Fold this protein.
Amino acid sequence: MRRSRTNSPSLDEARLRQQAIGVRLRQMFDEVVNEPVPDEFLQILKRGDDKRSGGD
Amino acid sequence: MASARAPAEEDPERDEAFRKELVGLIPHLRAFARTLCGDPTAADDLAQDAMMKAWDARASFEMGTNMKAWTFMILRNQFYSEKRRSWRQSQLDQEAAERTLVAVDDPEAPVALDELRLGLRMLPLEQREALILVGAGGFAYEEAAAICECAVGTVKSRVSRARRALQGILESGSYDRDGSSAGEAMSAILADAERLSHAK
């Protein structure tokens, strides 16, 4: 399916644009992945474990 | 696999292996939650809930299978069940998206990232999650389909519609922001395209 655009880019160019958007998407996602994990997460996991080993 | 599996409660070694792998997935769960919720605080709450649910359900996880996909599915289910509970959610999403924008107002950040975030928010949720899972989360179509509990073909079509829509949004600068930088998003992205083409 082809969309008509004012300056319709060639297929190659369209592919490059999609690739570039893909790069940005991963960059956006990885920005969060690379943030240090807040302590809360590990503490919660630890608490869950303590609860269990504390005997129920 | 020699012996019958003991119940997880009786298997501290298995628990420890499970925990290690789960801890390694936290950054990915946070990133996925952030793309679903927008608001970083709400996203971390969601990721924590999902992490606890995964931990509680660890006995039902088969070690050696794809824990990332499994936890993403838990997170996604959690997100949708909360969303169903709260009619206000979509409105919150919108406000959160705006707050997020302010929060990431980092002069060093590439200009196009904000626009990309805004553009993503304009996509239907089902397209957004499919695109994120496949385009950023590193999942194969089959895995994304399992996470979203739909057919592989459905994921493929959602991803391709999302890509087209996102490109259209970025090119037209029609994301919700008064258009000062309308052209900039796509030109920054095109600069990437340029680099990619030279890299070939």
Q: What stands out?
A: Confidence is low (pLDDT under 50) at residues 101-111 of chain B.
